[in-house]
Design goal:
Blueprint: H1 2-6, H2 18-30, E1 41-42, H3 47-72, H4 80-103, H5 112-116, H6 119-122, H7 125-131, E2 136-139, E3 146-149, H8 156-176, H9 180-199, H10 203-219, H11 223-238, H12 242-250, H13 256-270, E4 283-284, H14 312-339, H15 345-360, H16 369-384
Antiparallel strand pairs: 1-4, 2-3
């Protein structure tokens, strides 16, 4: 994409994209703090810390290229509806991966990348999540082992975040711009999607879908029809066996204490380097249970929680300080303000994704695939205004 861009003159740049460039520049500067160990954390400068930093920098730079590439293609080279339906096709893959995670949760295989990479890289737990395909994460969210779908993405929370974004573009491409047959297939796909959405046990995903429905009700020109459809779908869901699983999940908020500890500790640590952060995450002493952490026979849930692991906002605070977090939030908030007046289906959908990006930064780590979908959605908004 960069090569193709280099051959085009002039290269168009969207309004507000300077904030993303400043975000990248700030991240480059934050590398100066990689070797620092703030109070309340432990760990020396290691290869893993450097790899994590470089990988995030590559993601930020790659997304800059992707946005400029998509925005500089003409509508003849890449029609808007084609790009929307590409994202819709990825939603179909997401539903298929989710069903695989429910039906065959232990399915996994060794990817070609794992064969190529040296063990000292592929053995890193963060890298392993990205290169070793698995159908689901097995977790004890309900007090017993239960699968949380993650295919084809890197972890279960990424599946939830991405599903809530991709379903928006799927509905635009298949329902909004589709004929009768596509609309029938859309209803079938949504019914199938409900299974992994519930089995994901992902409260953030459920809230995000609720927020999306509320947004559509406010901005839709046919709120009565939308309300009737939602009421019918909700009634069918409540009468299905899936509703009991949702109730069990809401009664098992096991991660609340963990999140409260890591978030508060992250803010305290970030305050010691508020301008440029520390370049990468840090491990905290203690956790929400004890000051003595580490797995043992009597405490298999103990461990060293990495600061910044509970949402993109907290990751930005620890890696780039309060300025980096403000630049990130300002970029997406600016897009909402700038494109709010676009009443087309693509415009309204794109603004919704920008708002979800702002909401999810409190609960989801945006790296890697989630941030890609946010920026591709931003590119769709930009293209729609030209």
């Amino acid at each position: 994409m960069l090569v193709i861009l280099s051959r085009r003159r002039p290269i168009k740049v969207p309004k507000g994209f300077g904030l993303w460039v400043l975000l990248i520049a700030g991240y480059v500067i934050s590398a100066l703090m990689l070797a620092e160990t703030p109070d309340g954390t432990y760990g020396d400068l290691t290869t893993g810390r450097v790899i994590g930093y470089v990988m995030r920098l590559v993601v930020y730079l790659s997304l800059l290229v992707i946005v400029l590439y998509l925005g500089n293609l003409t509508h003849e080279e890449l029609p808007q509806l084609t790009l929307v339906r590409m994202l819709g096709a990825l939603f179909l893959t997401t539903v298929a991966g989710g069903l695989l995670g429910v039906l065959l949760p232990h399915f996994a295989f060794t990817s070609p990348v794992e064969f190529v990479l040296p063990r000292w890289i592929s053995g890193n737990s963060f890298v392993t999540n990205l290169i070793h395909p698995t159908a689901a994460q097995i977790q004890h969210v309900l007090g017993h082992a239960s699968p949380r779908p993650e295919a084809p993405f890197e972890w279960a929370n990424a599946w939830g975040s991405n599903a809530s974004v991709l379903i928006i573009w799927f509905l635009v491409g298949w329902w909004g711009y589709g004929g009768p047959l596509r609309k029938i297939l859309t209803a079938v796909v949504l019914a199938l999607a409900a299974i992994p959405i519930v089995y994901s046990l992902n409260r953030g995903l459920w809230i995000g879908l609720g927020f999306s429905l509320a947004y559509l009700a406010v901005r839709s020109r046919r709120p009565l029809a939308l309300g009737t459809a939602v009421a019918a779908a909700a009634t069918a869901f409540l009468l299905s066996p899936l509703s009991s699983m949702v109730a069990q999940r809401l009664d098992s908020p096991h991660s609340n204490d963990i999140r409260a500890f890591t978030v508060s500790t992250t803010v305290q640590t970030a305050a010691t380097s508020p301008i440029i952060g520390y370049g990468n995450t840090r491990n905290a002493f203690g956790n929400h249970r004890s000051i003595a952490t580490g797995k043992s026979d009597w405490c298999d849930t103990c461990g060293h929680p990495p600061l910044g692991s509970d949402g993109q906002l907290w990751l930005l605070l620890i890696t780039q300080g309060f300025i980096g977090a403000a630049l990130y939030a300002g970029f997406f908030a600016g897009a909402v303000r700038r494109y709010w007046a676009d009443r087309t289906p693509i415009g309204q959908a794109g603004v919704l994704v920008m708002m979800l990006a702002l909401f999810y930064m409190f609960i989801y780590d945006g790296m890697v695939t989630a941030l890609s979908l946010y920026l591709i959605s931003f590119a769709l908004l930009w293209r729609n205004a030209t």
